[in-house]
Amino acid sequence: MTATEHTAPGVHAPDQHTGPSSEDGARKPWTVLVVALVAQILVVLDISVVNTALPSIADSLRLHGGQLQWLVTAYLVMSGGGLLLGGRIADSLPRRRVFLTGLSVFTGASILSGFARNANELIAARAGQGLAAALMTPAALSLIMTTYSGDQRRKGLATWGAVGSMGVAAGVLFGGALTTWTGWQSIFWINGPIGAAALIAAAKVLPHTSTPKVGLRQFDLPGAVTVLGALMTLMYVLGTTANAGWLSAHTVVGFAVSAALLAAFARIEHRSARPLVPPHTWKVRSLVSGTAVMLGVTGILVGAVFLTSIYVQGVLGYSALRTGVAFLPFAFAITAGAHLARHLLGRAAPRTLAVVGLVLTAGAAMLLSTATSGADYASDLLPGLMLLGVGVGMVFVPVSISAMAGIPTQHAGLASGFLMTGHEIGAAFGVAALSAVATTAGSLTTSAAIVTGYGRGFVAAAILAGLVAIIAWVRMSATPVAAGAGAMHGH
Q1: Same domain, 405 and 262
Q2: pLDDT of residue 441
């Protein structure tokens, strides 16, 4: 695949670098990748780590159902809504500084989350974590892009994609274990020492870069606020459909307000001298298609984890720790799927691997939708979870690699923010949408309602997987990565 298939006017300028890069072919040490992955693990774990702790948090802080959902979605919406701005900042300011700032704020917000005394404090602290992640994530991914090239870059991006999917499943296990052994506060406090160690390591290994001084006026802050408002409104409306109804005035008006804010965002972007998403970005087929697939598969993954966590605790009576252990095979299956995809990338096209993974995901979702109130974990849940894990694991790797193919280093932050926006918004949408479908059966407070809602949610997940598979087949690259390796340098 040639670079012209991935880039558009205004994107390809591979000779303009904003920092050291290994474009000369020299191998670089993996220290930068390790630091970036630790940060990514912290960000991704916090997507799902609260799932198994929700009952304990609810009892401790006396939270109701709507507040529980916002403990998950506040983090995801603030992260996803801020990633576009974070990506622009990572391209305009020294990435090292942006990364360290994001990691510092994330660590501090995590500690504050553990000290929260009520729902409002905890939701606010979770939102702070999300905004910090919006700075840290694109900076971390662009550091991988600008530090490594060729086979090293492909391996780094493949590992990044695998960690992104495995972390969601592993978060349930860690959340369950920490909640059972030390209390729900520790799921946030554990980020303190890990974040501090990562900060020390990052300060030593991340390269110093020089970039022109940029003021706040150079960034499209009105656009960032508008898109964030649109996403928050959408998530709020989805979260209230169970009580208000899909066709109620409350729901219809809410959707209309969200659509109006998105339209305002598009208008602001069109008029802005430095838009969050420059117009030429939409012409980069690999990035746009990869982001669309990333959004869909992440929504399925995180929504599935959310629904299954409620099901095994509310119907099968699992403790937080047992729930976490139940997800351990799922995490191993994701690892296996990612490893298989990375092994096949040189011989199979990214779209082929993604479609196969999505077909497996759809089949797994239909299998899981048949679970009843008397389900047995080993025979009724485990096969579906294993198949789902292999499926999503096979999707994340080719999407992460092909989406960033052909992106020159000076636009790595923008591209990273764009791609990871799909990841975070997909996660928020998956929780909100699948739980909204599930709660059409009634509030998820009784065993019967949970079983019915669980089945409906996974049928919706299967349909979504099929739609995303169509997008992947039509829009993603039909050329094996090895054959188009040169495009990854932006040449």
Answers
A1: no
A2: 58
The answer for residues whose C-beta is within 8 angstroms of residue 76's C-beta and 6 or more apart is 47, 130, 302, 424, 425, 427, 428, 431
* Whether the Cβ atoms of residue 370 and residue 397 lie closer than 8 Å to each other: no
Is the domain of 152 the same as that of 84? yes
pLDDT tens for 433-458 read 888 888 775 566 678 888 988 899 99
Tokens of 470: 């169509």
Length of the chain counted residue by residue: 491
Domain holding 450, by residue range, is 30-206+274-489
Overall number of domains in the chain: 2
Instruction: Place 64 in a pLDDT band, splitting at 50, 70 and 90.
Output: low
Instruction: For residue 263, tell me if it sits in a domain.
Output: yes
Please indicate, yes or no, whether residues 287 and 261 belong to a single structural domain of this protein. no
Q: At what angle do helices 285-314 and 350-368 cross, to 10 degrees?
A: 20
- Find where tokens 């474009």 sit: 23
Retrieve residue 211's tokens: 């970039």
**Same domain, yes or no: 361 and 324:** yes
Residues 393 and 313 in one domain: yes
In a domain, 344, yes or no: yes
pLDDT at 410 exceeding the cut of 80: no
pTM summary value: 0.78
How many Cα atoms occupy the beta-carbon half-sphere of 375 within 13 Å? 30
- Among 18-32, 164-178, 312-326, the range scoring the smallest mean pLDDT is 18-32
Structural domain includes residue 1: no
Q: Are 313 and 408 part of one and the same domain? A: yes
If you search the block for the tokens 């979770």, which residue do you land on?
Answer: 126
In a domain, 11, yes or no: no
The answer to whether residues 108 and 176 belong to one domain is yes
Show the tokens assigned to 234.
Answer: 């959408």
Given a contact cutoff of 8 angstroms between Cβ atoms, the answer to whether 41 and 163 are in contact is yes
Same structural domain for residues 226 and 327?
Answer: no
- What tokens appear for 491 in the block? 């040449």
